[in-house]
Amino acid sequence: MPTIISINNLSKTYASGFSALKNVNLNIEKGEIFALLGPNGAGKTTLISTICGIVRPSEGTVTVAGRNIVTDYRKTRAMIGLVPQELTTDAFETVWATVSFSRGLFGKAPNPALVEHILKSLSLYAKKDNKIMTLSGGMKRRVMIAKALSHEPEILFLDEPSAGVDVELRKDMWNIVRGLRDTGVTVILTTHYIEEAEEMADRVGVINNGELILVEEKKLLMRKLGKKQLTLELQQPLTGVPSEFDEFHLELSQDGTNLIYTYDTQGERTGITTLLKELNERGIRFRDLSTKQSSLEEIFVSLVRKK
């Protein structure tokens, strides 16, 4: 897929001397869902704000579809829809008026049919004449997405889109994002909900202390960095792991009824066959076994701790 956003040696240092971004390099492909993960203060919002032209970079360049965001701001910004973390709308305006006005801000001619289509796709059409102040937090979040889509952007930034949204609405939002990707819109989201990235993203970037420490295809990331755990439910509890099994680095559950073996899925040999054989030879029997793959959340926490 062609690159739609190109970030080269991007840094942002504020007047206070705080470095929010440090030499960030990243290419985002057209039509992908890219998830940017990181703890609070990692630089996620600063990176998005810089790409959108809200924050001016200290060093480096950002291009959108080949255009520089600083020297060609109007054209690049018109290609971008932004849903910020904060719910910033006129509380006394109706949903319809808010979305229509947002379209006009980008110099687009009125298009009631398009506004209707956007509101229906976001399950907002029944609320079109309601004032924003009367809506729930989840509905207000949908209005923010509708505003961002009103000028038909090619790129959509979602900064913590599920903040304050219940589980049901969150899943609805995931479906909306997938639908946008299917129409060719490039979606970049920041999130604290790791399952959101695990569910939707094509690629994942991890940022910490202003540095982009990893960018990888989600499936490949989970294969490369994911660990598997084999849990053996013992027929008889143990008081400790016999020293003969030190090489396997086994963990024993608190009640002594489960042995847990962690292994690398990418290794040439997992060691499971050898482990089971040695357990059998020493008379340690088990009644059941199960395996568990590392989640994206566990991988993320591990990466940030290492950094």
3D architecture notes:
It is a single chain. The protein has 307 residues and is of the alpha/beta class. The chain folds into 2 domains: 3-223, Rossmann fold; 227-306, Alpha-Beta Plaits, CATH 3.30.70. 33% of the residues lie in helices and 29% in strands. The strands form 3 sheets. The chain has a 6-stranded mixed beta sheet with strand order 6-7-8-3-9-10, sandwiched between helices. Strands 2-1-4-5 form a 4-stranded antiparallel beta sheet. The longest helix is centred in the middle third of the chain and has 16 residues, at 167-182. It is elongated and about 80 Å long. The mean pLDDT is 86.
Task: Describe the secondary-structure layout.
Blueprint: E1 3-13, E2 19-29, E3 33-37, H1 44-51, E4 59-64, E5 67-68, H2 73-78, E6 80-83, H3 95-105, H4 112-121, H5 137-149, E7 155-159, H6 167-182, E8 186-191, H7 194-200, E9 203-208, E10 211-217, H8 218-225, E11 227-234, E12 251-252, E13 258-264, H9 272-281, E14 286-293, H10 296-306
Parallel strand pairs: 3-8, 3-9, 6-7, 7-8
Antiparallel strand pairs: 1-2, 1-4, 4-5, 9-10, 11-13, 11-14, 12-13
In short:
The protein has 307 residues and is an alpha/beta fold. Helix content is 33%, strand content 29%. The chain has a six-stranded mixed β-sheet, sandwiched between helices.
User: Strand-residue fraction?
Assistant: 25-35%
Rg computed from alpha carbons, rounded to a whole number of angstroms = 24 Å
Shape: elongated
Structural class designation:
alpha/beta
Number of helices: 10
- Low-pLDDT runs: none
- What CATH architecture of the largest domain do you see? 3-Layer(aba) Sandwich
| CATH fold title of the largest domain | Rossmann fold
CATH superfamily heading of the largest domain: P-loop containing nucleotide triphosphate hydrolases
Report how far apart the termini are. Answer: 31 Å
The count of domains is 2
Estimate the mean pLDDT confidence: 86
